[in-house]
Design a protein that fits this description.
alpha/beta, 5-stranded mixed beta sheet
């Protein structure tokens, strides 16, 4: 029986594995109006489905964070095609673990192609668990308004 191959430190296999770990790491832990949040790096692994959502739940729980701030570019295009059910699966996973999510960035090209996605974005933005915002400033304003009006429960 052949022993398993181990990647030597500095080898291309090791570097690729380490780069994947680094890309998956959050950029920073931040306090947003009293909410402990993990702001993810815009250049990390693409979020393709439920498994990736579970990994991110683990990141949030590992930092004892209540919220993830995820750049819109981190989501695979399938997330924005509601017929794939990726968006529903991902949102449900975050809600199951009571991790709030703010998707920050321009998603107008996706919304322009789908009235169903436009309705989905509007509906999730009415809640407190999953938001789509265009900029970090918009997220800050939403959280400031939420803080001023008192805490809301996470769905």
């Amino acid at each position: 029986m052949t022993p398993p191959v181990r990647a030597a430190y500095g080898s291309p296999i090791f570097r690729r594995a380490w780069e994947k770990v680094l890309r998956a790491m959050p950029e920073k832990l931040v306090d947003l109006h009293g909410i402990r949040a993990v702001a993810l790096d815009p250049y990390g692994e693409r979020i393709r489905g439920e498994r990736d959502a579970v990994d991110l739940v683990g990141v949030a729980l590992g930092y004892d964070a209540d919220m993830l701030v995820i750049p819109a570019g981190r989501f695979h295009d399938d997330f924005f095609r509601l017929s794939t059910r990726v968006a529903g699966d991902v949102v449900l996973k975050f809600q199951m673990y009571r991790i709030r999510v703010a998707v920050v960035g321009d998603i107008s090209r996706h919304v322009a192609r789908s009235s169903a996605l436009r309705d989905f974005v509007a509906e999730t933005n009415r809640g407190d668990g999953f938001w789509f915002v265009a900029t970090e400033e918009e997220l800050d304003a939403r959280l400031a308004a939420r803080t001023a009006s008192g805490p809301a429960t996470v769905p």
